[in-house]
Please model this.
Amino acid sequence: MKTQSIWDHHKDELYFFILKKIKNKTVTNDIFQNTFLKIHKNLPNLKDEDKIKAWVFQIARNEIINYINKESVYTDETSVVQKVDKHDYQDICCFDKFINDLPPIYEEVIELVYIKGYKQKEAAKILDISLANVKARIRRAKDILKQNFNECCKYEFDKNGLLTGEPNCSICKTV
Model:
């Protein structure tokens, strides 16, 4: 049996098997490719061609497990939170005031993600909300912050929607 024959007979079923487990097309493509590389490399070691399908899917399962284990190692390493002190942002006009003035549901997510350095997924677990909800709250908080910087400090937005300019507000001048 040749790798091309295995490809022809099992590629679709194998791809969707991996996709169902991983739920990410990019990662699925990587695992799928690695699976076929291992199939090609180890094909001479196959003892019973009648069990080819089970052998192919076992290689895919092993690749999925390898990916998950690798991810958990990286997640453990990146879970170390790098706390950022708000005082690092004192040069930014009214930064503390605007963060503190956010509605509590937006302030807490901004604090976790941008001040305390948590990943959005970790913030979702801490707050016991969905990742989509975290992203929506961040988007809304950013909109509020942009509006506040523009109104109070006369910052302007560049073509990419980023704040530019020099602070020019009465709050900063009185501090």
